[in-house]
């Protein structure tokens, strides 16, 4: 059983009283003929002082006190100053339930501060893990947990910290042993850590030791030192490949929508042009049919009207106009209508 801040037991207190009484006997040169009253008074005073001092205990803000009476669970104590029955009748165990506890694997923190120092010396057996494709990886990870039931945590199992460490190490080796080295070193660290956390919590729940896993996190995952350079080159190549794929996808997402937009615009323009040509052709057809109907009714009038309308459309675009003089057998030039019209407009 670990030391959880337990006060002195009844046997220890009795031994102290006996030792102190013997010391007083030697110092006072106790004489049986004078009676036992002075000695009893001294013993009573000592018992009262020791009992009074051992009847008080303090629970810190991040702790929970587990109170036992005659070895049986009595109650939990909240943070603050409390009293208990002395002389070993009630015992108190202080459990850090308000803190997130952390266990390190594959490395140890030597000192914390502005520059935190770590060490891996002598921890190779703990950190080296075999992957599913028979490669070896150097894994450093942490397990953070909280005590959810302090009574179960200290009495349900003999060594809770050691048990958590053993189960966590077994879960890590199991999950990593089912993955290949590429997943472990590059892409799937978060997924593997989540699997380890779920398996660890399920196992601890079966053991019922009052522990809740907060997180399992890989601190660092590297190949072993002899092949570290080669693995780093492979990792760089994988990252470069992912970068090129990302760039290609980015260009694809930029070019394809633009090409689709241009194609859609060209299609809409073609459809608009087709509608325009169709409507124009229909209009000309309707005009021709109407003209044909009028021509069939009055051919001479319609022919003359068509001739006049055509002349009205053609003559303004001519620079000079000549008229055939059938009597004189020649051409008679007329005024240049365009220049005359331009002069008139000015």
Automatic annotation (TrEMBL):
Residues 227-269 form a coiled coil. It is found in: Membrane. The keyword Protease applies. GO terms for molecular function: peptidase activity. SMART domains: PHB. It is a single-pass membrane protein. Pfam families: Band_7. SUPFAM superfamilies: Band 7/SPFH domain (SSF117892). One of its GO terms (biological process) is proteolysis. CDD domains: SPFH_HflK (cd03404). Signal peptide: none annotated. InterPro entries: Band7/mec-2_domain, Band_7, Band_7/SPFH_dom_sf, HflK. The chain crosses the membrane at residues 35-57. It comes from the Bacteria. Residues 54-235 form the Band domain. Keywords: Coiled coil, Hydrolase, Membrane, Protease, Transmembrane, Transmembrane helix. GO terms for cellular component: membrane. HflC and HflK could encode or regulate a protease. HflC and HflK may interact to form a multimeric complex. PANTHER family: MODULATOR OF FTSH PROTEASE HFLK, STOMATIN-LIKE PROTEIN 2, MITOCHONDRIAL. Belongs to the band 7/mec-2 family. HflK subfamily. This is Protein HflK. It comes from Desulfuromusa kysingii. The lineage of its organism: Bacteria, Pseudomonadati, Thermodesulfobacteriota, Desulfuromonadia, Desulfuromonadales.
């Amino acid at each position: 059983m670990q030391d959880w801040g337990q006060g002195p037991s009844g046997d220890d207190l009795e031994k102290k009283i006996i030792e102190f009484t013997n010391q007083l006997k030697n110092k006072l040169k106790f004489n049986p003929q004078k009676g036992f009253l002075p000695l009893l008074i001294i013993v009573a005073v000592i018992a009262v002082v020791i009992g009074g001092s051992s009847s008080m205990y303090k629970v810190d803000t991040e702790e929970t006190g587990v109170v036992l009476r005659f070895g049986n669970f009595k109650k939990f104590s909240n943070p603050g100053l409390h009293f208990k029955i002395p002389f070993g009748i009630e015992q108190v165990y202080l459990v850090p339930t308000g803190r997130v506890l952390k266990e390190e694997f594959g490395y140890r923190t030597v000192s914390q501060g502005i520059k935190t120092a770590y060490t891996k010396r002598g921890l190779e057996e703990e950190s080296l893990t075999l992957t599913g494709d028979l490669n070896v990886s150097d894994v450093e990870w942490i397990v953070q947990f909280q005590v959810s039931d302090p009574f179960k945590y200290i009495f349900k199992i003999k060594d809770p910290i050691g048990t958590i460490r053993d189960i966590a190490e077994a879960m890590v080796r199991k999950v990593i042993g089912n993955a290949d080295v590429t997943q472990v070193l590059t892409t799937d660290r978060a997924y593997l850590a989540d699997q380890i956390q779920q398996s660890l919590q399920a196992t601890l729940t079966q053991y019922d030791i009052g522990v809740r896993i907060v997180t399992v996190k890989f601190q660092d995952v590297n190949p072993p030192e002899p092949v570290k350079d080669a693995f780093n080159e492979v990792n760089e190549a994988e990252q470069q490949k992912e970068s090129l794929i990302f760039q290609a996808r980015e260009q694809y997402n930029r070019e394809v929508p633009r090409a689709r937009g241009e194609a859609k615009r060209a299609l809409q323009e073609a459809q608009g042009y087709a509608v325009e040509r169709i409507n124009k052709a229909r209009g000309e057809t309707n005009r021709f049919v109407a003209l044909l109907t009028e021509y069939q009714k009055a051919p001479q009038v319609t022919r003359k009207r068509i001739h006049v309308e055509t002349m009205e459309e053609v003559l303004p675009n001519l620079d000079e106009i000549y008229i055939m003089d059938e009597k004189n057998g020649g051409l008679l030039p007329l005024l240049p209508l365009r220049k005359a019209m331009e002069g008139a407009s000015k």
